[in-house]
Amino acid sequence: MCRSKAEGGRRCRGRRGRGSLATVDSTGSSAPPGPSGRMRRSRAAVLQAAQKQLGDLLDAAVSAAPVDSAAALVSAADADVAGQVADAITATLEAHGCPRGNWQNHLLCGALAAVAQAMKAGEDLAKTAVTEGVTAALTAGGMPRLPAGLAGRAATDTLMKLTPVRHWEDVRRAVQLQAVSICPNVAEHPEVEQYCLRPLASNLLSSAIQRELAESLPDDRSLSAG
Hints:
This protein is an all-alpha fold. The protein has helices at 21-25, 43-63, 76-95, 107-118, 126-140, 145-162, 168-182, 190-204, 207-216, and strands spanning 30-31, 40-41.
């Protein structure tokens, strides 16, 4: 899926030959039939299909490929800001003795999920919220406090410097897409699922996957949580 420059290469390179969504949908176990009698896929299989669909939309936005109206909700410029936030976190950690090879699998996508969640506070309050959120996510992922705090400030500085006026929610959406796209497995990362994938569902996912996601939720949770 979409990879940042720090992961090696272009920020979000379009993918070729990855197979259709139907191919991905056919993998993964199935749950017992639902009330309608149709076979229900497992929660992990539904999240895998949703992750692939959102990654495809992000790649299309960055490569300016023809896409449907849903993908137009994310521009290449907004996606580039999200990628540069990821790069700023990565570069700062590596510059302060935390090489990528020593990171936990979900470190960067967790930090981006924290950015997206902190951005809900609004542009006026986000400076502190993003720094604190990224710092907390990185320290929870095993990073020392000092480089984690510096990476949190780097993420905030990049976000505030590059986000165009009146594009706050657009960039937040792009950060959510970036987190989903680089996550090794959304089914095993509840913060990315809750703060990034599910809030994108109603605008960007197919109606079939939206329905399956809603069916996989506990009764006290909303599809748009996050």
